[in-house]
Every structure is written in C-alpha cells, then in structure tokens.
UniProtKB/TrEMBL annotation:
Sequence similarity: Belongs to the SPRING family.
The protein's name: SREBP regulating gene protein
Species annotation: Sesamum indicum (Oriental sesame)
Pfam families: SPRING1
InterPro entries according to UniProt: SPRING1
Keywords, ordered alphabetically: Glycoprotein, Golgi apparatus, Membrane, Signal, Transmembrane, Transmembrane helix
GO biological process, one term: positive regulation of SREBP signaling pathway
C-alpha cells in the first residue's frame, strides 16, 4: 500500500470546510446590509432657495442629501417660523408645509378625507405630505376677490370646515384662541373685532357659517336660511323689512363670498376675532 495520499483526494475533503468558513461571514454581512434600508424623502419643489422634506425639515437645496433627498435634520422639525398659529397661515410656503406636517396641527384621519382642490375631478389626498403640499399652495382662505391676498400670511393649511363634518368637540378645538363676537347692526367683522382690540380671522368664518353654530350665539327666531352675501354668517335685525325675514339667521353656501369686511345695514354679523 502506498504511503502517499492523492493530493486531489485531500483537496476534495478540505473543500467543504473552506466553503463553510467563508460563507458564514458573507451571509452575516448580507443580513446586516438588508437591515440597513435607506429612507428616501419626498420634497416640495416650489421654492427657489428652500424646500421641505416629508419629515418636516426645511433646508436649502444645497444641503439636501443627494441620495436620500432628505434635509440634514439639524434644524427644528415641524418649524412654524413665520406662521400665525391661530389662523394657521404662514408667510412662507416651505414653513407652511413644515408646520402643517406636525401631527398636532394636522390629524391624519381628517387630512386624508379632504378632496384635492384642483382639478375638480381629482380625488382625495393620499398622505399628510400630499395634503400639506397641496393645501399650502391652493388654499382659498388667504385670498379675497379671487386675485388678491388678505395679508402676508397667504399660505394656509387648515382643514376645510366642510371636508369631514366636524363634531362639536373638533369644532371647539379648531376655534381655540378665537373670540366669537356679535357685531352691531350694519357693522363689518373687521370693525367689530377692531372695537375689541383684535383682528378678524378670515379663514375661521367658514367654521361659523353653519346653522348649528350660528344658533348657539344668536336667537335665530325666524329660522336659519341660506342666503347670498358677504355679510354672512349673520342675523337679520328685528326691525328689518318683512321681505328680508326679520329675526332669521343667515348662512351662505358660497364659501368664496365669506369676507371680514362685508356688511349689510339690516344684519348683525357673527365674527371670529383674535
């Protein structure tokens, strides 16, 4: 019998051990890599210098991670810089989106029920980021007469009052910080609020433009009727001509006609002031 083993036979015996030794670390490495899933951000594209990612961070375009498209996250998350938290309107589009993304500001379950403003045939928003990015851009609550801004805070993100039929609890929460004032006969809300050292909050008029709300503050002896006019929501004074329904409360189905400066010599307005 030969005392020398076939070298090929030795190699075949050692080959499985060699494979086992190097395959274990490789499999572990692959497992580690699979756990490190990168988050890719969605961002706004409107601004020339700044943008907001879907994490709620605002940064300049040069600071964005080229791979993830996320902001560095060094600044405040959900920043409301330049925003009026009472009216929920901001002077900057990017900070409007950032502030809106705060769950405390925009409940997800309500945002996803809102219909997309444009086009008319569009459905509902698919995410809170979609809602905030769209709402801050298209909101009509900051516009008067279709083509002029009410103030420098013209990017608004509040949820439309007719989007989900808010309960009384939700309504109270959305009117937090708002002082409801009944104006004098023939007085506008701008004037009524100014008399109390406050200003009219235009985007809260829609919340008051509901019979159940008007009846809470006014007597509405002549029922609650749909009407057309910039002085609504309001109540017709008792000594008004009979054809104007004295004592009736009025609301409008045309949200775009709601205005802080509207008035009528035979009505008293219900005004949101802050």
């Amino acid at each position: 019998m030969s005392q020398f083993r076939n070298p090929l036979h030795v190699d075949l015996i050692l080959l499985p051990l060699f494979i086992l030794q190097f395959s274990l670390p490789l499999s572990a490495i692959r497992k580690d890599v699979s756990l490190q899933q990168r988050h890719y951000c969605r961002t706004t594209v409107q601004g020339r210098f700044f943008l907001t990612d879907d994490n709620g961070h605002v940064c300049d375009a040069f600071s964005v991670d080229p791979l993830s498209r996320c902001c560095p996250g060094e600044g405040d998350q959900f920043s409301c810089q330049g925003c009026n938290l009472v009216s929920q309107c901001c002077s900057s589009y990017e900070f409007c989106v950032s502030c809106c993304l705060n769950p405390a500001m925009t409940p997800k379950e309500l945002a996803l029920k809102v219909k997309i403003a444009k086009p008319v045939t569009a459905g509902k928003y698919g995410s809170v980021f979609d809602f905030c990015a769209g709402r801050c851009r298209h909101s009509s609550e900051s516009v008067v007469h279709e083509n002029a801004y009410l103030s420098e805070f013209h990017h608004c993100f509040s949820i439309p009052s007719n989007s989900s039929g808010p309960s009384s609890t939700q309504l109270e929460a959305r009117l937090a910080g708002i002082n409801i004032i009944i104006g004098r006969q023939g007085e506008s809300c701008d004037s009524a609020c100014k008399s109390s050292g406050q200003s009219c909050v235009p985007n809260k008029l829609a919340l008051l433009n509901q019979c159940e709300v008007i009846q809470k503050y006014m007597s509405c002896k002549g029922a609650c009727l749909s009407s057309i006019g910039a002085d609504q929501p309001a109540e017709v004074v008792e000594d008004a001509p009979r054809n104007l329904n004295p004592g009736a409360c009025l609301y409008t189905r045309s949200q775009s006609s709601l205005s802080c400066d509207g008035s009528h010599r035979h009505t008293r307005r219900l005004c949101p002031c802050a």
